[in-house]
Amino acid sequence: MLALATQLYNDEAGFIVSAELVLVSTILVIGMVVGLSEISNGLNQELEDVASAFGSVNQSFRYAGLSGHKGTAFGSSFHDVADYCDSQFDVTCDGGSTPEANKHDRY
Length: 107
Fold this sequence. Notes:
Layout: H1 2-10, H2 15-55, E1 61-63, E2 66-67, E3 72-73, E4 76-78
Antiparallel strand pairs: 1-4, 2-3
């Protein structure tokens, strides 16, 4: 039994293969981290585009009043103003975070 353990301990036939596997797996993990980071940036940019599209919908409406022989209906109107965070590029992936306190100067 001791001779078998010594023989396995001195056997270096699999050393190069295991070192290559460690090197290849390290490169794959680094590449996967970079790839997932780019996927995250792309996903955040697309979701920002969707949010900007929803925020840019104009909700204003107006209807004129009606007047007839025995009745009158008054008109109404509503004007949509921009919300606090309704600008494009609120979420940026490469420029860092933008403080919300400095965004009030655009109104």
